[in-house]
């Protein structure tokens, strides 16, 4: 018997078999679902990286678009913290 005939008979029998069709269908569904989930996670990560890069770029420029002067890291951290630099609330006695 030719090999092509044997392979064709095996594929035909598998296509008619309910178990094989269900297994292939389930595998395709899980495979496509996994690909879509992975794509969503990669796209969300790429968007987050782009957003953080955009924020870092815009934060490093002042109002006129010039690069900021070099200052010590400690003064940068305290100057950019909105709660620590907020004026104290008036007390009523």
Summarize, please:
This protein is 68% helix and 0% strand.
Q: Explain this structure to me?
A:
The mean pLDDT is 79. The chain has a domain of 33 residues. Helices cover 68% and strands 0% of the residues. It has 93 residues and is mostly helical. The protein is elongated.
Count of runs of 4 or more consecutive helical residues = 3
Based on Cα principal axes, name the global outline.
elongated
Average residue pLDDT? 79
Terminal CA distance reads 104 Å
How is the main sheet built? none
* Helical content class: 55-70%
β-strand amount: under 5%
User: Which structural category do the helix and sheet elements fall into?
Assistant: mainly alpha
Order of helices and strands: HHH
Query: Count of DSSP E strands?
Result: 0
Unreliable residue runs: none
Radius of gyration: 31 Å
